[in-house]
Amino acid sequence: MADHTPPLESGQLLSPEIPLLQSPPPPPMVNGEGPQQVILVQVNPGEAFTIQREDGHIQCITGPAQVPMMSPNGSVPPIYVPPGYVSQIIEENGVRRVLVLPQPEFHHGGHSPLHHAPPPPPPPHAHAHMPAFLPHPSMMPPPPHLYSGMAGGASDMSPQFISQYHPAHIYSEQDPHSPHGRQQFVHRDERANKTYERLQKKLKERQGGERGGGGGGGGGGGGGGGGGGGPNKDSPPSSPQKSRVTSPASDVHNGLGGRSGSENEPSPSPIASPDSPSRSASAAACGRERDVEPGELDEEAQALQARLNTISKPLVVEIHARGVSLSWSPPPRPEAEGGGGDGGGGGGGGGGDRGGGKGGAEAKGEGEEHAEEEEEEGQVEGGEAQEEEEDVQTPPEPPFTYEVSVSYSGKDGRYRSAYSGKDLSATIEDLRPATDYHVRVQAMCKCLQGSASEGVSFTTLSCEPDAPSPPKKANGTKNSLSLQWKAPCDNGSKIQNYILQWDEGKGTGVFEQCYYGPQKQYKVTKLSPASRYAFRLAAKNDMGVSEYSEVVELLTSCGVPVPPSGPELVKAGVTWLCLQWQRPHSSPREDDIGYVLEMEEPGSGYGFQPSYDGDELSCTVRNLHRSTTYKFRVAAYNTEGKSNPSPVTEISTSPDRPGCPPRPSLKGKATPTGFRMAWDAPKDTGGSSITKYTVEISEGQTGVFTGSTWEEVYSGSVMECVCDGLKPGCSYQTRVYCESDGGQSTLSEPLLVQTPAVPPGPCQPPRVQGRPKARELQLRWSPPQVDGGSAVCGYSVELGGAQVEEGREVYQGSELDCTVSSLLPGRTYSFRVRAANKAGYGPFSERTEVTTGPGAPEQCRPPHVTCRSPSCAVLSWEAPPSNGAPVTEFRVEWGAAEGSMQVCYSGSASSHEIKGLLPATNYFCRVQALNVAGAGPFSEVVLCQTPCSVPAAVSVVHALRESEMVVEQPARPRRRRRSSEEDEEEEEEDEEEEDEEDEEDSPPLLYSPSTCLGLRWEPPCNHGSEITSYLIDLGERQPVLTGPVTKHILQNLQPDTAYRVRIQALNSLGAGPFSHTFKLKTKPLPPPPPRLECSAFSHQTLRLKWGDGPAKASTADALQYHLQMEDKNGRFASLYKGPCHTHKVQRLNESTSYTFRIQAFNEAGEGPFSNVYTFATLRSPPAALKAPKVERVGDQSCEISWEALPPMKGDPISYTLQSMLGNSEFKQVYKGASSSHTMSGLQASSEYRFRACAHRLCQDAPELAGPWSPTVFLPPQRPPPEAGAGGAAGGARAAEARRPKRSLTDEQLTLIFILLFGISGILIAFVIQYFVIK
Asked: In a 3-state reduction of DSSP, which class is residue 543?
């Protein structure tokens, strides 16, 4: 908000030449409390407000701003408004405002027009102006200009004006979006308007039957197509605003001419002429790109426009206090293109001669005389249209968009859009209660806009009043408050009573009723002084009680205040005093207290006069005299009266600063380093005495003063001073100023002083230029820094010895360098120089010692080596002769070999400490000296050996694998020889067992990984002394000491436990450092051994079983078993190692006891062995006999013989022989100890079979029968051959037939089967190789 301008008198005029924006004139604010009335004119952003003063000057104020206008007589000035507007005075919080609003219709039920700010009529002119405030009607002619239309309604007002009433919804044209989200229609420019007018003109020329201003413009509906040649007889006379015709661009929608605020205004048809050259451009602007002929496009547009004009009026479905529900029907499809639709088109044409605007039956009644004359023309046109319709295909149903407009200023008032969409129903909210409205609907399709339907009127229902404004304080005393209030909007039902509530001064927020009645004022009595009370107000009518107003807090008056304390000085000036005072302590803060400051000027004789009157606690009194004492007092007052004045306080103004002192003068003669100066006091002291003088000095160069640096050299009350410490031969200027209680004066004119010159100061010591030679030196020096105030004209160089003060001059001249010759090499000389000017020679500079012709140093003596420790040695040496130049550096070379020494030190020290050496190691060293002339030769090589030391730290440590943790066993004893007395059978068994042991060595014993950890490390460097032992530290456990080994097994550890291990080597000199700590962890305890059982046994095998599980298991099982059997030597040999739970022991001796044990193992290691189990084998039966031999002894007898078996371990052997005749069963024919038997009584023609088996006759057990031998056949005996030639052959065949046939043994049959199987496999492989692969 811009700054407020000063108040204006009521007679000042507002310029009628300043147009406002499209918003109503802002309501002025009137302050009705004081004797003067102030009206605030609100200037909106973008507007200009021009005021013409009485003196003729024009003041222009641009918005946003508030212009206060003051009326000196205390009354509200008359406000003249144009027709169509009214002024209303409202009051809120003690401030009266004048609202200038458009004149609404009569509202039923006493509805206040302030509840909603209705939009005014359309703008009568493009440049409307605001009328001026005039003191009297006779002084102002009728206003030539009127207000512009309200674009935004109440929404464009300032926020302080909206709080008086609550508009529900204003249909604004300037809003960027409508309440239903529909955007504004964009106004066209001048070029588009001209194109539009040209299209309308061509369209009217093409359409036939135009009479009376455009009859038959559209078929059917409410006569929207009718022209408007004259005013409607049912319409009220238009106001000046409505009678004006706006420009075509004032209300254009979607690029087409729409309807303005009134139906009486002409609405040209939006259909373009088919002959218009802008047809394609118009179609592209509407977003339609169709590849059709121009004639077809225009006929389509005409038909669609005619259909849009036939929309019927909306239907009011339901009415509420602040809303209404509407519904409507889409435009009906015409029966024939170009006809009269439902009859309304003809009516519209006829009615056009009499004023148009109505269609259907009403238009027919008004234009009945003309309808008969046009009937024939209509029939002809209808016939032509019917013929054209046959050639044109009926278009599909187009999408319609509907716009609902509402007017609350009458049927012919201005309509505002309230809804836009495709639905056939809508609910309009935010209406005013008890208000007459008119609503109409308008259809749009494809950038075409139809005429609006006939308006439908409805009246909203009444409701409870609006919330009133808070009550205000009209008057008040110590014990009473008079309240008054304004009536709120009654919303259609008269307000009957008011409800006033208060909090009784408790401040708890709980309100009680203190008044109920129809009055608009009430006096509350019996109150406490200087107390706060809260009030709120509500209104009641027949519809209910309104909401309560905002809570307002009011205060009762207090008593006369006590005299305040005297005023105090805040800050004093030369002509002003800033004073402050305190509020009376006994007055409450809520009491409005004013203060009167009175001042008495000395010597005036008028006494105390008021100099300030207000409610502030401080003020500044101006226009006073300097260094003058004034008397002040202050009095407090409120509505009850004025207090006595405070005690008088005397306060003085500050003095002014003094005047400028005169120019200082030189007192006496200036010296090379100073001078004395004096000055006089200033003529004007400023009202106070001078307290201090300050002298400043500035140095100049050759009479030119830069004036950039001034230094203070004196500060005091004496009017002369001495300036010393100056430079000889320089120019100086001085100035002086004075100070008093009033401040600092200006500077005086400067005084110029020149100091005399002196001999120059000392030079810098001379320096050697280049490298000194053996017999001459090149010297150079710089001029002195102090020339004594005169230019240097010459120099003198003096040569002297190092220890001699006196010398001789070797150069005199004006140059800054010289060459001194005839010097001795390797000698040290001293030089000094001095400068001279017109005042004489200055002092000598400091001496500079220079040595001529330096040479390289000589060879150093061999260095002395001292070993402090096995890893540290200290070298020291002496400096050799320097040969004229001091030794600046020593280089020491050090190495383990004489030919590979490297520089280990380079510096000026005479000793060096070498660290990081290896103990018991030989090292070589030598030293060399250097100076500026070069490097001398190396000294002789010195050999030194570091002493022995403790071993180094063990750096490499490994953990042993389980397979490496082998238990060391003593040497295996040799087996004893067997005596010759043992039997041969036991010898054979022992030989077999020894062969098995040789083939299968027993695995070595290993330490348990659950209780043992194996370590292996690499021996560290012993540093000259052999390692005697190692110490293994296990943390909390006792350290383990081992010998000089590199592997050790830690035993008796806890299973599944982590240990931190570190190793330390020891020798005769002590213990070395520990190795790095590393973590090792023992494995869990191995599983316990299972129970061993013998599930099956025979004379040569034993089947053993242990644990629960399958007989066969996978090798991936975590738990496995190790089965061992004790041999004849008492050692256990491994039989089985795997995951299975059974094992068969074969190749055992009969009737022998065997001892077994078993252990389980897994990832944790091998568990303990079980107890020893003993199992015995059975006695073995005799072996199977070979097939017996059968020989015929006679025709009816034969001899059967078989092999004899030896006795088995002392048990005799008997035999059993069985025979079978033909296919009968075997029958025993012999049993005994003999190995042959002769059988008689045989049948010659029968076949016999024989088999035999051996029996073991046990002494303490039943006999054991062996297996049967293979069966042997005895063929039948053939008859003898006939006698003759074939006798010999027959005898031979008979002899062959009598020979017994031998059957194949089991081994022979097995061999035959293997051969057959191998041959068949080879054949199959050959077939696959040849036929399949190749």
From this structure: coil
